[in-house]
Amino acid sequence: MNAAIPAQEAAWQHVTQVARASRSSFYWAMRLMPAQRRKAMFAIYAYCRELDDIADSDKPAAQRRAGLEAWREEVARIWDGAPQSPTGRALLDVRHSYPIRREDLIAVINGVATDAEGPVVRPSLAELDLYCDRVASAVGRLSVAVFGAAGEDGDALAHSLGRALQLTNILRDVDEDGGNGRLYLPDEVLTRAGVAPVCPSQVLTAPGLPQACAIVAEMAHGHFAAARAALARCNRRAVRPAAVMLESYHRLLVRMERRGWHQRSPRMRLSRTEKLAIGIVHGLL
Questions:
Q1: Which helix H or strand E contains 10, and what residues bound it?
Q2: Which string of DSSP letters, residue by residue, matches 42-79?
Q3: 70-86 confidence digits (pLDDT tens)
């Protein structure tokens, strides 16, 4: 860190740079927000990004575990008012400005720890739902607090939209994950589709895999529908970023369905023009 830059200013520069570098659907959605709330969301994104980087690293499991434990300690320091990392210092400001919950920050660590301990393969439906809650819906709960939609309806939106987005990600990344020894599709669904309990790379060529993907897609549609209902109960202006994420990911899901689950490559994504168009529509709400 440049000694001439105050620590808090450097912290905000850091999280903003992390978010801008992503160029993801998240970044485009957050551009709809007022500057202070947008910066707060950049801090939450940087937190999640740094946790993901630990879980996805090539370091031994013990080192990944230690890295996540260090973040548990940093979250405690945030609540004590004395964080040590740039992202932690930014999150301290967020905590003072918005009603984010410590348990949601910890839930994200717990979710990422699932990946850090080794590849996830054929989780049960209950295990997958808990994983989605931790790595996606918990982030949603942090987000709605910053949006200005904290409360029962905001939590309901986070619950359903987080699961919808995560299931869509799982479907989009089936082949990439399978090549890396991971298989997030639930065991009950794979069994129903007649997919034997073989290694993930072999599942990629199983005749029943398209049926399993179609079942999980229906699960995602159910969560998208519940998210739309929750969205309608929230302040429309406050939850514009959530509406953008919902529309973007629902488009991805529908596009994958239209292509067919037998053909899963190339990896589906929205163009920059499409992201901008979605953002413009919801920016005018």
A1: helix 7-22
A2: HHHHHHHHHHHHHHTSSS-HHHHHHHHHHHHHHHHHHH
A3: 999 999 999 999 999 99
Tokens 């957050």 belong to 30
Determine contact, residues 186/123, Cβ cutoff 8 Å.
yes
Report the candidate in 232, 227, 233 with the shortest Cα–Cα distance to residue 164: 227
Of 206, 135, 137, 211, the residue nearest 171 (C-alpha):
211
Task: Tell me the two tokens of residue 173.
Answer: 């990344």
CA distance 69 to 220: 32
Q: How far apart are CA 120 and CA 116, in angstroms?
A: 9
Contacts of residue 239, defined as CB under 8 A and 6 or more positions apart, other chains included, come to 144, 147, 149, 154, 157, 231
Cα 79 to Cα 72, 91, 116, 181, 225: the distances in Å are: 11, 10, 25, 37, 36
Question: Does residue 83 contact residue 91 with C-beta atoms inside 8 Å?
Answer: yes
Residue type, 134: R
**3-state SS assignment for residue 237:** coil
Q: Assess contact for 238 and 37: CB atoms under 8 A.
A: no
Domains of the chain in start order, with CATH, are 1-102 (1.10.600.10), 119-285 (1.10.600.10)
Instruction: Give residue-wise pLDDT tens across range 53-74.
Output: 999 899 999 999 999 999 999 9
Q: What would the two tokens of residue 163 be?
A: 């699961």
The b/e string for 170-191 (b: 16+ C-beta within 10 A; e otherwise) is bbbbbbebbeeebbbbbbbbbe
Task: Round to the nearest angstrom and report the end-to-end CA distance of the chain.
Answer: 40
Ramachandran quadrant class, 207 (left: phi over 0; alpha: psi -120 to 50; beta: rest):
alpha
